[in-house]
Amino acid sequence: xxxxxxxxxxxxxxxxxxxxxxxxxxxxxxxxxxxxxxxxxxxxxxxxxxxxxxxxxxxxxxxxxxxxxxxxxxxxxxxxxxxxxxxxxxxxxxxxxxxxxxxxxxxxxxxxxxxxxxxxxxxxxxxxxxxxxxxxxxxxxxxxxxxxxxxxxxxxxxxxxxxxxxxxxxxxxxxxxxxxxxxxx
Length: 185
Description:
The protein has helices at residues 9-32, 38-66, 80-106, 113-144, 150-161, 163-179. It is mainly alpha-helical. Helix 2 runs antiparallel to helix 3 (80-106) and helix 3 (80-106) packs antiparallel against helix 4. The radius of gyration is 19 Å and the shape is globular.
């Protein structure tokens, strides 16, 4: 996945955001048809959500696992918790999409499912926020060549959080970092 770190911002944006939005748009067109094509809409929703999640989590994973190699030797960072924190929401989203596909075929769902869903959803959100936190802190630490405080990387955190905009600011910085000859692939 390290190839994501060398992509131009427009290409990364297209892969992680543009293509999933086109698939979602196609699904919305299905709702305008007479008769309404709900299965087509749900299929497009499932595919676009899966593409979006795969794109953003892959990019964060690549950043979180490769950026620590650019830190000075006296700064130690482990990406084990990051891997777990990104894997949890990825599995959660895959499970939710599978349940959605199943419900679309069956036509009903037990309301008690919501009680199971809420804690898993909160755990997934915590994993995503930790992933954003870790990548933002590591990126700023690499740029400063020392451990960064939260006040120094809060901007990167919000750029990653609102990544369709932030990708245009963050990815050129990533391209510069990984274009340097000192990085060993």
